[in-house]
Amino acid sequence: MASHDQYQLFRTAAGVAAIGWRGAAITSFRLPAPAASETERSVLRSLPGAARAEPPADIATVVEAAIRYFEGERIEFFETAVDPGQQPPFFTQVYAFVRTLGWGETTTYGAVARALDAGPEHARAVGQAMATNPVPLIIPCHRVMAAGGKIGGFSAPGGSTSKARMLELEGVPVTVAPVQHGFDF
């Protein structure tokens, strides 16, 4: 079994996505972008030196599931093996919790912090964990929103519009508000 990083690009209904793996675990996932070159640059930033390769059967299964997800099929990734790499312990807890959120199930940054017995002051750290999530969709960070029904940030191609589209695919009604340029109390 190869122990070096490999990746592959694949087309979805939402654009070109990428998956990276080491052995049987997914180490990187890049949400769809309009251009393959943008997706490839992004995956290579997270996996420098990775080789483009045909995915082994277990990884190919995840690729097929992701393609079906972006076509609107109800897909869950609960059993998918992931290796998010070296992370702060709190981020590891956040990722494990967020992986339990199913199709169309949303929560807030503050609720995740409370579920992990961390005070609401840790909501910002939950947001940072989501922003640096190396395997979005599989660790469904798009299902974690800001307080008050606000969509919150999203670091994937297309930003919060992509997050809103993913949530809408899952039947979650969302409105993307213009970026707030004011006080955030």
From TrEMBL:
- Name the domain of life: Bacteria
For this chain's UniProt record, which GO biological process terms are given? Answer: DNA repair; methylation
Which ranges carry the Methylated-DNA-[protein]-cysteine S-methyltransferase DNA binding domain? 89-172
Q: Which reaction does it catalyse?
A: a 6-O-methyl-2'-deoxyguanosine in DNA + L-cysteinyl-[protein] = S-methyl-L-cysteinyl-[protein] + a 2'-deoxyguanosine in DNA; a 4-O-methyl-thymidine in DNA + L-cysteinyl-[protein] = a thymidine in DNA + S-methyl-L-cysteinyl-[protein]
- Asked if the Swiss-Prot or TrEMBL record annotates the protein with the keyword DNA repair, the reply is yes
Q: Name one Pfam family in it.
A: DNA_binding_1
Keyword Glycosyltransferase set for record = no
Q: Which SUPFAM superfamilies match?
A: Methylated DNA-protein cysteine methyltransferase, C-terminal domain (SSF46767)
Coiled-coil blocks? none
Select a single GO molecular function from the record's annotations and give it. Answer: methylated-DNA-[protein]-cysteine S-methyltransferase activity
The protein's UniProt keywords, in alphabetical order, are:
DNA damage, DNA repair, Methyltransferase, Transferase
Question: In its UniProt entry, what is this protein called?
Answer: Cysteine methyltransferase
From which organism does this entry originate? Sphingopyxis witflariensis
Q: What does the organism's lineage look like at the top?
A: Bacteria, Pseudomonadati, Pseudomonadota, Alphaproteobacteria, Sphingomonadales
